[in-house]
Batch of 3 targets.
Target 1
Amino acid sequence: MRWQTTVHSLKLAIMLSYGKFMTEFLPPAEGEPNDSTYDNMFDAVPEDGKEQDMHPLFVDAVNHAGILGNFFLAVTDALPNRTYPKRRKTDVGMYRKGTVPPTGGRTDWAAIELTVVFKVHYDQYNSTDDESDADHHSSSVDCEDDLGQIPSYAGSVFSRQHVTHHFVVIILGDCARLERFDHAGLVFSSKFNYKQEPAKLGQFLWRLAHASPETRGRDPTAVYVSPTSPEGLEMLAWETKTLPADDYTRQLFVKTLDRGWAWWKLKVRDGDGYKEFLVAKPTFIAPGVVGRATRGYVAYDKSNKDRPFVYVKDCWRVVHERSELEGDILAVLNQHEVSNVPTVLCHGDVEGQRTVSQDVWASLHPTKECRMKAHQHYRLVVNEVGLPLKKFPNGRELVSVLVDCLEAHEEAYTKANIMHRDISVGNILLIPCGEHPVDKQPLYKGMLADWESSKRTGYNELEARHPDRNGTWQFLSVNALRHPKAQIEIADELESFFHVLLYCAIRFLPHTCDDVSRFMYDFFDRGETVGRSRYTCSILKWKRSPLPLPRRRRTQV
């Protein structure tokens, strides 16, 4: 599973004792009941047997105790979310009273406030509360499977809601463990016996239910928009408006008006103030929990009647003292009149929304380099709404679009001293610009987008901002893959353009390749292990590279 790599193998998880976990994330609150309130609370919940038999008994015990205030628990183990493509469901969830309760035991990832998961047979978990074992992570096979499954629940919440973090409770037979996910990693508590010490779990549930929305993880700059509200109806009105047939931005926006997804009003910093944008279903969602978690939206800017549709990028950028905001980079490119790049409208960090898992790790290892990366919530709005490169109609337009992006890359380097450093299929967009006068096929301009990994060429002599590879694995040059600490140079970027061309030609155009899936995997996805830990490109990509391998170069920025 992907998460066995990102959390377990890379050790992006840290354990705290129960007491320290609560102090860090849910400290004592005014009006909190005393411990005797929770006596015998979970006696009716069995310790073993079928997990599904435990779910309703656990839910009844918590709901009848009256400790959740404006929330309630619901059994959601029967059906996945109707519109979730991976058909994922969880055992029990906490929801706000007044919302439409999950029907038929169906998980609603757009509304869930707390995920509760039951795992009966987990004797391999370390049961200590000793804080000296705070950097604990289990190496058992069962625990690796668990680390693969449970973060996927947090990933489902992050993809459907606008939250900074998400809490999970794992019931392990007669024990429990608390978890908190953010985009830097996982902090989890030591295991405790919730049957013998019901106050520990009861205290967590009470504090979470009575905490502020921000403490529970809610993003106050994202406000839910009901399709029946005035703003929701204003969005829906675009479905019936009569506009030119070539108004593709309106068509793209209408396609996002999916009632199976939550709609939002997002605030984005604009100088000293803010602008608001209405969005529905994302056009792009990056998978996983740890990392940038980028989402893209075709957004409605109701303050701009002449150009109402723009593109909003919502992500968690890696924090580094030399990292520049993507919007600032685009502003420089726009100032230098670099062609075929997005036009920045507004952008900025979301105030007060920074991951904390890395700070917890660092506090426990003050003399070690933190292996978790700090991430800051960031939003960017650009004027252009592009189509994915895979929508190109023929080989002529594919080559033409890549030439446009090569021009953008060259101008950015020569006019603004900026190198992109992440040439990939996902970062090249199509902008419709009419049709061919003869065959009436659509014509497109290419736009080179996603400049968040770019750098100014004057930084070449400085040490690396991040100790891992920059760019997208499938399209990195052979040299960049074989020498991950080498600087990305123009030759590497040009080779990446070739890999984009090859990828699209084999996938979408007529060719003579006998085994497409095998070639695509061996050339673009496969890697080879070098020594004990280093991972490099496949032999096929190395030996068939169109460019000669340059000498090993100095350290990457």
Target 2
Amino acid sequence: MNNLETASSGILHQIPVELWNQILHAGQGFMVEDLKTLCFVAPLFKAICQPLVYKSLAFRGAKRPCGYSFEEVETQEVTHDVNQWKQDVTGLIRAERRLHLIGDHPSLSTHPRTISVGVMSYAWTRSLPPADKTALSKAAYETFSKFNGTLLHTLPSFTRLLRLEIGVFPIDDKLMRAMSLHPTLRELKLSSCSFTTVTFPIPSIRLLECSELSQDQAAAAFCLASSQHLEELRIENMEVSAILKGLRARPESESMLTKVHRLTIVPTSAKLDLVGVETMLSYVPALRQLDVGEAFISVPEGDQALKSSIIPCLRRFAGPLSFARYILHGRPVTDIRCVDGTSGAFAETLAELQVCLNPLCLSTVTAEGITTLHLPPHMIVPIWLLSRFVAETFPCVVDLKLTVSGLIKPMDRWIAYPRRRCRRRRRRRCTDDVVGPLGEGTVEGMVKDIRENVEKELVSGFYNPCHTAKGVDYAMIRVSPPPSATHTSSSLQDIDGVPTLANVCNDVVTNSAGVPSRDPEDYQETLIYFALGWYPLPAGIQTLFLMPGVFPSLSDITWPMYPPPFGSPGTVEEMTLDAVVTALGKRYPSLGSVTLMASNGRLRERMRIPGIGNGATRWTVLET
């Protein structure tokens, strides 16, 4: 037996550790249970897999349970959802025990990089029923207080913790002190948190995320940012008024966030107030990256550009095209990533296209200095006009995203279709309710039973790799999602794309200037026109994304009764896609990544892989 173990160990160690790390880290879709089982196979696997299992911990049960409220009520009879109370208290006790077991373990406590406490959105919380000073409320309070104490006790034990996420959770003075004294904590996310103490700047925090905070909560949360240390600020699902109140509530000496270089704003509604946005930006003078997503920011006709004194160092912008035209003037922006906002853009002639896109050229680096250009998906411009304009106006672009359209229709004939919004489902109330207070002895017995069950579930199976995920409560069941891409490769030398493309468009001829005799009829033909060089691209292009738009052949039948089918590629043959990528690779030597859409609606990404042995360049195809 010893000889067998020695031989097995020898075989494992013959394979380099770096290769094992690649196998187990490269998104192979291992389940948490798989990695835990591997920890018991060999010490080598344990050293690799155990940090993955405990890299990210989520204590979703760490929330105020049903019946926690101590508010006085007028009625003598209080309705308690006892089943919900049991479920919440069980989750809280389990979370406390897991936190204690991992935090007090000398080895496991060194693995977590991210810890999530509570829930990250009100959409996942249950309404607290009214409660007086009953035994249920006292038991819920004591259970919650014990978790809070364990969190304060174990937080310093996580010696390599980088990120802490707190959702729907009270932050008191002790927790504030524990966070400020943690030596490795760099990122903090607060979602719907309440503050029971005065907050102060934490110099170690480099990234602060705020989500679903009220005006009072925002005022306390924004005071956590140190003006000389915070580098990135993310704001999600908050009203502009709450954001501004949070910024204005900061001490005068800390009012300006002078070190913030990246700001991300995801508003609660699709529309942002221009004046409010300008005021927000005035607090981050050193900003280099701004991302406002698909928020619509209405710019009045008379306003031509943002004041030059606001964010003068901006280099990267992501947001609606209308706001890009307003904000880029006089700033060294080289990276422009435009999204839809609430509407697309339309241009039928060169003059209209110049009015639409020329403001992007007003960056201080000029159009020649722009290296990344992503135009909105719903931008309706004939591709034969758009491609030539981009190639001539932005010659140094290396990362380009275009929507391939052939439709010329007046925009006022569009029918406005409302966007689908996520609705929060109301949870059904359990019918197994109890009216009136329960005796303390009864509640104590219930809590005792819950603790015994949790202890049996966790402690007896703590070192057992096969215990169920129910008692594990990880943030994600999978360490990484299973790869949805299929990998194949084919040599460029094995594909002769030009004859294949010419056969598809055998009825198209070009004049002496190289202009084809007719416009493409669909997405596939447009790709062929690019591959044959009839539609130009910037000479140094490295990353290309051609998204299908709309064509008359796909929309004439239903126009104007229905909006044209955006993103419908029509019939695109796989052989044609391979031939297009091959021809583009030969025409543009720097091109390393091409993303197109196949007939099944899936994006097909081709990555160029330089040859190693015989020098032949190959393309790896990823279907996502």
Target 3
Amino acid sequence: MSRERLLPFHRFEGFVDEKSSFHSIHVRVVQLWSDSWNFYKKAVQMGRKDPRKIVFAIKSGVALSLVSLFIFWKYPLPDVSQFSIWAILTVVVMFEFSIGATFIKGFNRGLGTFCAGMLAFLFAELALLAGEGEKVVIVISFFMIGSIASYLKLYPTMAPYEYGFRVFVLTYCILMVAGNRTREYTAAILTRLVLIAVGACICFIINISIYPIWSGDDLHSLVVNNFNDLATSLEGCVNGYLKYVDYERTPTRFSTQASEDQLYYKSVIESAVREKTLLGFAVWEPPHGRYKKLPWTTYVKVSTAVRHCAYTVMALHGCILSEIQAPPEKRQVFRSQLQSVSAEGARVLRQLGEKIEKMEKIGTSENILKQVHEAGEQLQKKIDQRSFLLVNSGNWEIGNRTKELDYLDDIQIEREQQHDSVHLGFKSLSETSIYVPSSLTFVQRLANKDLKTKPQALRKHVPWPSWISFEGVGLIKEDEVKTYQSASALSLATFASLLIEFVARLQNVVDCFEELSEEAGFADPDVVLLEERGFGFWTKLCNCCFRFKG
């Protein structure tokens, strides 16, 4: 084909390439606009969710605006405008979201700057006295300061002051460089130290005087939320266990097929890092508002006790998604007792969270754990009475297997009469929701089924122990069926025992709460109630006088 005939094809291909390039540019522009719009909506949503962030941004702008006035400083110290960047940098690096964070940043910067200034002044004088050896003194001082500071900041207890070490090294180097250039070490050091101090003062004044944000408030709210979240998760796990919800046998079922109210315990467990951070800021804050006494470490101790209970709730949630499950008929036997324990346990958690929120003690005549202990005792008695349901009693040397069968048959008849709508079905290939009274009965039920085709429907690798397992051409492994029956019964005992363990751990939470209420000076509800009824100070004084006369 000649060159003239190929020319239209080349033009067509060029047109197609140009069109595709325009299309790709259009797609990128649309995507960029969509991402920008989504970013804008999320930024607005963040401000609406926590208006304090908007206030913090405004305060930061106000502080920078004030410190920028040093740029226009002329008299009486003309050098102020030249070195005003030091005050501006101090505001930029020190101004933090909370008061405690600003204080600890200010302490680090202040201490690092002061030490750097003193050492810079010392080595500057040595450098001037050295004469021709001035350069050698400056280089050696840089080596010593950099090496010692870099080594000390690696010490474990110096981790909170890592920022101070960086400020120390940076400030020393800049002061020495500036002094060497102007040959006026003293003036350069004093001017920069004063401007840094002015910038720090502006940070403190603006951050404290305009809508102060306290880390102690955030720590207080976090502890209260932990109580409420754990209570919600406890009720969700128990209700989910009794509902016997189906799930697919997939590795992601632990995160994708669990209901939201069952997963609140995760926020309690994951709050440890945030508590440590807030504690580090809160200890630097002065007494404020209703926080006259500041036992922030005891707040963290209370939250740690709550987290200890959260681990039990996490284990309860693991029972819901475990491979071996108890039949629903057996779960319904303990339904009322399980729900009673979860309801009372959640009530105790919410009540303690409410008292922390109000900063109120437990009444002297109030036994907050009485009802949950009674519920736990009732559950334990039920387990003792129906213990034959939690083990494979067929292998007992002394026992009556027919008692279990008769009891479960009565439960099944009662549920059918009441038209209970509990959903039954497969929860995984390793379990079934249909109760199998015995392996012999189970084999008889499968006698009329085509066992030759059944193994083909099963997976190639059947989990162990399985509720039904085949060997060869349709021969059922009766031993493995018995193994599953025993394990499934014990799974219910595990769930119940974990719930009783949760009740026992609540005592630690109450003890930590009482310690916190004493150290923080929580209000006594009995005294508040008397004052609300009119029995104030003068009434008590008159009563004491009358008693004395009597």
